[in-house]
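Entry 12.
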Amino acid sequence: MFFPPIPLIRKHHIIKKLSEHGAFAPDSAVAFSDAGIINPDGFRGVTKKLLRSGELVSCLDGRYYIGK
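Predicted 3D structure (tokens):
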């Protein structure tokens, strides 16, 4: 049985959307909904993993930017 790699697809979607919006530093960080990320509150595990690895950095106001 085949299961699509949903977490990997989600990771690439988040990184792509933040890149398109130029979110590479705290002053250019954007909220997931503003970046056009589908279902911004879904897949919290993927978001947490990206935060732990440093690939994604969170601002205190709910905005994110690409860390690495």
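Annotation: The radius of gyration is 12 Å. DSSP finds three helices and three strands in the chain.
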